[in-house]
Amino acid sequence: MNYKTMPKCYKNSSKPHFFCPGCGHAMILKQLGSTIDELKISAEVVFGIDIGCSLLAWDFFDFDTIQTHHGRVIPVMIGVKKANPKKVAVAYMGDGGGYAIGLQSLIHAAYRDDPVVAILVNNTNYAMTGGQMAPTTFPGEITTTSSSGKKSSGFGNYLDGLKLLSSVADQSAYLERVSVSNPRQIVSAFKKAFETSDKNHFSFIEILSICPTNWKTDAADSFEFLKNMEDKFPVQKYPLGE
Description:
- By secondary structure, the protein is an alpha/beta fold.
- It has nine helices and nine strands.
């Protein structure tokens, strides 16, 4: 790691992160910090983090950070934005916090076109608590609560949250799904999200990410699993074709 080139907004460029080896969160947060530095908006950013692996970013950056209860990061950041419209409110969560316990808040934020930047990391499991089955878990996928593989009967197929949000979001909102397999695309999505928020519209980015610890995969197998995710959760923008 070249500390000299790390984003200035990191509180301490020599402090290691606490994510598992190979975790996609570290890659995503590096791109987020770099983008915020490039846009020179760190003084305006308020960073909200959900319970789950995302909470390990609680002291990652040198800007105001709020840790919320599980699934509540969206309404808290909406409150921040309403209290101080000049702030850039960023809500960072996992697929459990956004697509399970926090889904109601996420849907209504999209429906109301609340001017927050919502970032959801999808690794198909509840990673912080041991790799349990999540709404995004595939049929047949083995987790700690589906040891013989997830069964669609009784548990559903797998939730395409981006498609769901697109059905209620305002036409001025920005929604996109990207993957850690393409860091440049992540940066591009972040820039578009901040631009949309600055125009007082809702932004949502789902990022497909790897979880070697709970997937029990090495580097090669992790990205093979990610490729399978990209087949099921296509990297795309809404409305389709834009």
